[in-house]
Design goal:
Blueprint: H1 3-13, E1 21-22, H2 33-48, H3 57-71, E2 78-81, H4 84-93, E3 100-104, H5 109-116, E4 122-126, H6 131-134, E5 139-145, H7 157-167, E6 170-174, E7 191-195, E8 207-211, H8 213-216, H9 256-272, H10 274-291, E9 301-305, H11 310-316, E10 319-320, E11 322-324, E12 327-331, H12 338-348
Parallel strand pairs: 1-10, 3-4, 3-5, 5-6, 6-7
Antiparallel strand pairs: 2-8, 7-8, 9-12, 11-12
Amino acid sequence: MDDSHRARLHAAQQQFTPETAYLNTATHGLAPIRATRALEQHVREVATGRFSPGSADAVIDAARAAYARLTGVAVERIALGTHVAQFAGTVAAALPAGAEVLVPSREFASVCFPFMAREDVTVREVPLERLPDEVGARTALVAVSAVQSADGAIAPLEDLLTACRDHGARLMVDTTQAAGWLPVPSERIDYTVCSTYKWLLGPRGAAFLTGTAEALAELAPLAPNWFAGAEPWNSLYGGPVRLAQDARRLDLAPVWSAWLGLEPALELIEQVGVETIRAHNAELGDRLRAARDMAPTGSAIVSLPAPEGAAERVAEAGVVAAVRDGRLRASFHLYNDESDVDRLVKALG
């Protein structure tokens, strides 16, 4: 990382005020000061009767445009919602009866449950590393997280893109644990779904769906609403149904506070740069792995054995981590540094 990238990273770190060694971005990210101020202003406006819902439109549009720049996906191919499961459910509803869906073993529930809930669809769970080899003539769709929530394993997306293309299958990728630190070829993926309250540093309650033009054309909105209208504020009452013609027809009405807090956070991510954040996060993750005699992986999420009492010792040392799937999970972002890693290592003993 050169000096200019380090300078941008250092400037961004001044936007955070952690009171702990916070190693839990895989659960939720820390809010930057600029996002906190935007949310405080929103709460004051709501409390005093000065909030106008229409005034949020420009901020929401700016967030959609920022996500387009971060992902390389055209803005007209991006839909807005609140949670990953809603968009995964939209994709699941488009599958024909009898379809086969491949998912990794131990995949996050919001990715696999929408497909498993369909009794007329077959869902096969296979190890992540074997996923590309298991795509076959019967496979209609592969659903996978770009980075596994439990252990930080990075999915073989290029191999999956090739396998899906060769067998005529669709690919849906959950980028919730990747967007903001790991570049993903979103413009070439049939569908991506993303909740923004982790590495994108937004409040909970905002999510994105992107897709290729061909794949999006196969989706029908599960919850058509006024915000998905061609002219939202002229779509509040009565028929006929008049939805937008692009991906906005899949929009869900926004949780205003979530988008008002997300837009300044996305601005910060853009200012630092995803590649710079990736280098920083991966360096910290691999520093922890090296200290625990583990091979480097370049992931921002590290899963460690959690012997009895380990989680309690870590918490007593002022380190915030998580226990997932029976193991201790540490996750790193731009507000962390080497001292956070060393503090965790010392606490583990």
